[in-house]
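hey can u run this one w/ zinc ion bound, need the structure tokens asap thx
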Amino acid sequence: MTATAAKDGLVLSDVWISTCPVCDSSLAPTRYVVHRVPIRQCSQCNHLVGAISEQAHSEANLEWNKDEGTWPKSIRRLERRRLRTLRQAAVLLGRKMKGLRLLDVGCSNGSLLDIALRHGLDPEGVEPAERAADDAIRRGFTVHKGYVESLSGSYDVITTFEVIEHLRDPLPMLSACYRLLVPGGILVVGTGNTDSWTFRVLGTRWDYMNPGTGHINYFSSHSLSRLAERAGFRLAKISTRAVSFRNRDQPGYRFWKLISQSLAIPARMLGKGEQLEIFLRKPYADNSIG
Ligand SMILES: [Zn+2]
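ok here u go:
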């Protein structure tokens, strides 16, 4: 194949994602470039994609395969946030949290499994990064090594945090979650929000937009719910939180942090927070394609 240069200077044969993963439409160059990776935008649904090569993306994702996994410095702080999410999923199911069968997709070394276990859920995880999965198993959690697409089972709730933005083609992952949920079951997807005040102000200086950390798909609530509907899901609830207008290393960080904190509540109310959680329901009557 002859290499052709695209408008943003990329050699087209090197571009790993050539069409929009949400709606299959063509991608157009934007003014954004992050660490020499051009960001492209869908001409139809405005979804943003990092035009990174397959090799560079694989190297970036290697960072996540380590014994330390993503276990947080403060599990208490994470616990407050994740408990709110699990409670919300239980409310949508019309059930108590206790005894709910939970699958965490991309569980790393199991911080969410730890929280869920301590609050009476029946959790399992699935994780392709072998060292992180081994550490979770050493900690006593039930973790399947590999990808959710090859799993069998039946779950009331499936969660996946900070995973979908790493995937070249997220639809098969969502379809696998759909297959594994009971009718009426809830999938919670957590990722960044490009329809946030943070992205409006920081643009590509927002650390979520960094393809160097393996992030290549940048969602809004609109693009994420549109993609999930293709897998058969129905939107149950959208929740966003947090605003930041300066990174820690930028001048005026402390001042802007106060401004950001004062805007946290309006951002949450208006869906403009930088962290997006979308709750999706598998309908009681099967809507999946094929
Ligand atoms: Zn699109």
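The chain has a mean pLDDT of 89. anyway lmk if its weird
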